Structures are given as structure tokens and as C-alpha cells.
Amino acid sequence: MTVKRIAAALCTAAFCLGAFGTAFAETPEEKVERLRQEAAEAEDRVEECDAAVQTAANERQAYADKVSAIAAQIETQKQLIAAQEDVVNAARKATAEKLLETERTRDLFEDRLVAMYVQHNNSSLATLLGVSSFSEAVRYVENLQRIAQSDTQMLETLRVQSEELAARQKTEEDAFAQLQADEQALEQLGAQYAEALRQADEKYSAEQANLAAAQATATQTEEELEQAEREYAEWAAQNDSDSPEFTDGVFQWPIPGYTTVSSPFGWRTLNGKQDFHRGTDIPAPQGTRIYAAASGVVSFNAHSSYGICVKISHGGGLVTIYAHMTARAESLTPGCTVQAGDLIGYVGNTGNSYGNHLHFEADLNGQPVSVYNYL
Ligand SMILES: [Zn+2]
Question: pLDDT, tens digit, for every residue of 212-236?
Fold first, then answer.
């Protein structure tokens, strides 16, 4: 009996009998299907959100890198500006000194010329009278002119030097202004990057929140799915008694190689009391593989005294139970189907158990029967 056949049979029954309230109500199988779909979608959404978080983190890192790069550039620029300020100050000082030198020289020359002129004028009569010849007077005047000419040349040289220094000063000041303007541009760019980084930070936080929400939804959906699978397995097991008789023939022995029975099915004395033993206990080392005795639909729900257990509904109201496992086979989920001989778990000592063993039980319509009826 496959899950589909059970479900199809019950689907029809539900439809005819109105067992689920309305004809359009969701069957347990449909609920499992829907939740499986939702769980897959929720998982996809988690992956999308995870990718978005990664993208946001990368963008954030890119802007953080730009912000630190621009900060380093600004630092370099400030050093250049400081160095250029020294150059400008030196140029200004050189210009001012040259100007001072020019003024002093001019004053000096003027004073000297005035002195010579005055001397010449005062002594001109005496000179003229005393000078032995006209040619001597001419030499004197020529001498005077030569000095004046030399002074004029000197002043012209100083003027040219002053202009050159002023031009150099201007060039250095322009360079200084350019460096400052560049720094301002860098500061603006830095502010833009800082703002972009702030926005990227916000986006990153928002994406992280989205991811957390998606993960919460996925977890919740997964839990709902597990619950629905359990309900479905129970429902399938309960309704299985309506389905045809178990016709798979005989059971396979669930732990090949271990056939000693430590506690048989039926009445026994436990701690001085009469106790009905619902199963057959077969000791085996912890971890010994347990295989399905026959094909059927798996469920997990049982009394806690069974510990970790697996139930398999075989049809016709027949269920086998494998109790006290150390673990179930990883591939098993409630509601899945197994074939005879499929691995379903490992021998253990969980639940009400004293020592590693398999409690192997068969229930027919909820009442325990000896597994040997089917072996
Ligand atoms: Zn037992």
C-alpha cells in the first residue's frame, strides 16, 4: 500500500463523507504538500536574502575602502599644502627683501648723486677757477655721468630681479591656491562617499533584518511541515485499517544475525509485577542496523517509553514498531514510504530500556500481536 493509494482512497472517502467539514478542505496529504512547497519557497527566500546581504556587505566594503582612500589622499594633500605654504612664504620673503634692497640702493644712490651735485655746485667756481684746463672739467663731468649711468643700470637690474621674484611669488601662490581647491574637492568627494557609506550601512542592516525574518519564516514553516508530516503519518496509520489486508507475506527479520530473544511477547513478571510485553526483545550491540520487516508508511509518534522509535503502517491495520533505537536512519521522514529490508535505524538503549536491544512489535488494529504470526 503506497502513500498515494492510501491518500487517494481517503481523499475519496473524505469527499463522500464530508469528514473534513467541507469538500474543499485541505486533506492532511495536501497540507503536507502545501507546506513542503512553502518550506521550499521559504528556503529560496532565505538564499535570496543571504545573497542580498552579501551584495550589501560588498557595497558597504567598497564605500568603506573609498572613504579610507580619500582620507589618505586628503592627508597627503594637507602635507603638500603645508610644504607649498613654506615655499610661498619663502618667495614672499625673497620679494620683500629684494624690494627693500632696491629702495635702500635707490636712496643710497640718490643721496650720493645729491652730495656729488652739491659738492660740484659749491666748488664749481673754485673748480673752474682752479682747474688747470677745460679738459679736466670735462673729465669730471664725464666721471659724474658714468657713475649715474652705473647706478641707473644697477637699479634697473634690481627692478628686473624684483619683478622676477614677484612673478615667482605669484606662481607659487597660484599653486598653493590650486592645492587648496583640490583639497576642497577631495573633501567634497569624501563627504559624498561618507554619505554613500552611511546609506550602504543602512541597506546592509535592512538586508540583515530581511534575512533574519526569512530565516524565522523558514524555521516556522519547517516546524509546521514536520508537524503536518507527523499528523499525516498518524492519520494514514489510523485510517489504514480501512485499506486492504496486509498481503506482503512474511516479515523479514529486522536485525539479521541476532536471533536470541531476551524477553518474548506476552505476559511476564517485571519487578515482581505481572506485565504484558507488547513486543519481542532482541539484544544486539549499540548501532546494529535495523531494517524494515515489510514495506509501508513511516511515522515517529509513540509513547516516550519507546524512546527513539519507528512505526511502519503496512496496510490492513497492521503496524510494526521498532523501539529503543540509538538513532533513526537519516533518510527517514514521517510519512515517507519504505520497502522491506530498507535501513530504518540503529539499535540503542533509549526510552524505558535496560541494555541495548531492539523491541520489535506488531500491532493489528491497535492491539499487540506476536511478530511470529508474520514470520
Ligand atoms: Zn520490549
Answer: 999 999 999 999 988 887 777 777 6
- Superfamily of domain 266-374 in CATH is Glucose Permease (Domain IIA) (2.70.70.10)
24 vs 10: CA distance, rounded Å? 14
Which is higher by pLDDT, 260 or 269? 260
- The full set of domain ranges for the chain reads 50-211, 266-374
Of all residues in the chain, the percent with pLDDT exceeding 70 is: 84
**Protein residues placing their CB within 5 Å of the ion ligand 1:** 279, 281, 359
What's the pLDDT tens digit per position in 37-73?
899 899 999 999 999 999 999 999 999 999 999 999 9
In angstroms, what is the span from residue 2 Cα to ligand 1's centroid? 28
Mean pLDDT on 87-115: 90
Mean pLDDT score, 106-111: 87
Mark out the alpha helices in the chain (DSSP H runs): 3-17, 28-130, 134-239
Q: How far is the CA of 286 from the centre of ligand 1 (A)?
A: 16
User: What's domain 50-211's architecture?
Assistant: Orthogonal Bundle (1.10)
Q: How far does the centroid of ligand 1 lie from the alpha carbon of residue 317, in Å?
A: 21
Ligand 1 centroid–CA 187 distance in Å is 80
Burial annotation 36-71 (CB, 10 A radius, 16+ → b, else e): eebbeebbebbeebeebbeebeebbeebbebbeebe
